[in-house]
Specification:
Blueprint: E1 7-8, E2 16-19, E3 28-29, E4 35-36, E5 46-48, E6 57-60, E7 63-68, E8 77-78, E9 83-84, E10 109-114, E11 120-121, E12 125-130, H1 136-148, E13 160-164, H2 177-190, E14 195-202, H3 210-216, E15 225-229, H4 230-233, H5 236-255, E16 260-263, E17 268-273, H6 284-297, E18 301-305, H7 314-318, H8 324-343, H9 354-358, H10 364-372, E19 380-384, E20 394-398, H11 404-413, E21 418-423, E22 436-440, H12 443-448, E23 455-456, H13 459-462, H14 467-482, H15 488-491
Parallel strand pairs: 12-13, 12-14, 14-15, 17-18, 17-21, 18-20, 19-20, 21-22, 22-23
Antiparallel strand pairs: 1-2, 2-5, 3-4, 5-8, 6-7, 7-9, 10-11, 10-16
Helix pairs in contact: 1-5, 2-11, 6-14
């Protein structure tokens, strides 16, 4: 594309182009032989470059994004009124395009907190974790004490006291998959490198019993892990006071931590996108993919997630799988989600939100193809369950729904110590205890929501940057944020309310 063009085609085989800005009906597209627009086309939406018969595929990125519901003429606006999902066979070609990253010639570093077990933190928090919703208020009261009373001024190396609360933990099968997944998720937070110490607060009678959670997750009580049960402590006030005292004892220990120079191999980045638009797969997502390739070359780890948002693009990942086994795990997840959607009388194509569609995305196939671009080009090294600890370096995939806070919660529980989040419509997301970087897909939104955005990727389309230069910019910001520079969401104090575990199984 040229930076003066009204619309651009992303692949030689595409039969649609993407509008750079709103284009009124009757406008000729000189770059496509003078095609005349037959309707107004909003920014980031699609215009037909060739006639498409009913039932024939529409191509973007050289891939199928849906099928014409009735004949589409040249110059017509292509969207939900004439394009819909359809089934088609994908060529999984396991491992055909697997590219194991070549180690970077120049080592990259950041300044992190090295824990006793060798893990590296990007932040140095004290966590207050609820086992059940019934202890959420007590958890927040403890955090409120430290935010109101300026206690932390005497502990400059401690980044804060963070609440990890949620709406679950009871009225579920006591030993079923639901409680096991919740324990795995909460256990991942309790053991997270970004927490120097943790107070765990339960009510006492919940299904998610404190002792069972500690046993299943290999958590041991000690000076930096304090379990408190409200019913045993004598109620709310007593528990709050005991938790404040426990945090007070942890603060001097946590304050002894100092940042030191470490390899970028210690970075584990959660890849997220939310409020996506038609520009996401053109600017911010592929630019983040460039940054992921740089991270992987340094020995670092990137976690792609949200299985419904790779649907229709999963064949691009199976081709990059380091082994057939890893590729087949991706296919198995896709089949599970198809069966789940059918069982719940839903559709995976329900995933694109009204905002996604207003921003130019029509089907989940189109959204997924743009979303997968966040993963870069290196080999897919492993596939993990939700909130399962990540033990592999390089690009990995974690199963999760397509709800951003839920996906990010699982990625952080799996060990992500940084979040990179692309957005086109605008997101106000934060993800304590891991700092979150926001990447805008377009300049207009970046300028409108500048307080929330860390990097503008819209200049890739505007002509001020390339995907390669923007990827380098993102990677360098990752290192600075990991070293202690505050992200926009941290400056705004966002991140205390975004923990949303994925609950499975029946509620009784």
């Amino acid at each position: 594309m040229t930076h003066e063009s009204l619309a651009f085609k992303l692949h030689a085989n595409d039969n649609v182009a993407i509008a750079r800005n709103p284009i009124p009906k009757g406008t000729p597209l000189a770059e496509f032989g003078g095609i005349i627009l037959q309707a107004d086309v909003p920014a980031a939406h699609k215009v037909a470059l060739a006639p498409v018969a009913a039932g024939e595929p529409v191509l973007r990125y050289g891939q199928i994004i849906g099928f014409a519901t009735h004949p589409i003429g040249i110059g017509e606006h292509v969207h939900t009124h004439n394009l819909a999902m359809g089934s088609f066979k994908r060529d999984y070609a396991f491992g055909e395009d697997a590219k194991v990253a070549v180690p970077a010639a120049a080592p990259a570093t950041f300044r992190g907190f090295v824990r006793a077990d060798g893990r590296v933190a990007t932040r140095n928090y004290i966590g207050i974790v609820s086992t059940v919703n019934c202890s959420a208020t007590v958890t927040k009261l403890v955090v409120e004490h430290f935010s109101k009373n300026d206690v932390l001024k005497d502990y400059p190396n401690v980044d804060g006291v963070v609440p990890i609360t949620h709406s679950f933990g009871c009225c579920i099968e006591h030993n079923g998959n639901g409680v096991q997944q919740l324990r795995r998720t909460l256990g991942g937070f309790v053991k997270h490198a970004n927490f120097a110490g943790v107070v765990v607060i339960g009510l006492g009678c919940e299904a998610n019993q404190m002792g069972a959670m500690f046993m299943s997750e290999g958590i041991e009580a000690g000076k930096l892990v304090a379990p408190l049960v409200i019913q045993d402590m004598g109620g709310t006030r007593n528990t709050v006071e005991a938790a404040i005292a426990a945090v007070g004892a942890m603060l001097p220990v946590a304050n002894q931590c100092r940042r030191e120079e470490v390899s970028a191999a210690h970075l584990t980045v959660a890849l997220q996108c939310g409020g996506s638009d038609g520009y996401s797969g053109i600017t911010a997502n592929p630019a983040l993919g460039m940054a992921v390739d740089l991270l992987v070359a340094q020995g670092g780890t990137a976690i792609l997630s949200e299985t419904p948002e790779i649907y229709g693009a999963e064949h691009l990942l199976t081709r990059r799988a380091v082994s057939r086994e890893v590729g087949e795990q991706i296919v198995d997840l896709i089949k599970w989600w198809e069966e789940y959607a059918d069982r719940e009388k839903g559709s995976i194509d329900n995933n694109p939100t009204p905002g996604n569609k207003a921003g130019g995305l029509t089907t989940i196939l189109e959204k997924s193809l743009g979303a997968v671009a966040k993963s870069g080009s290196s080999a897919l090294m492993g596939v993990y369950r939700y909130a399962e600890p990540i033990t592999t370096h390089g690009l990995v995939f974690m199963d999760a729904p397509g709800y951003d806070p839920m996906g990010a919660t699982g990625q952080i529980a799996s060990g992500a110590n940084l979040v990179a989040f692309t957005t086109g419509r605008g997101s106000c997301f934060g993800a304590k205890p891991s700092p979150s970087i926001k990447l805008a897909t377009n300049t207009k939104m970046f300028m409108r929501m500048k307080d929330d955005m860390d990097i503008n990727c819209g200049d890739v389309m505007d002509g001020g940057a390339t995907l390669e230069s923007k990827g380098q910019e993102i990677f360098e910001l990752m290192l600075r944020i990991a070293s202690g520079e505050k992200s926009r969401s941290e400056e705004l104090g966002v991140g205390n309310e975004e923990t949303v575990p994925w609950m499975i199984g029946a509620q009784m």
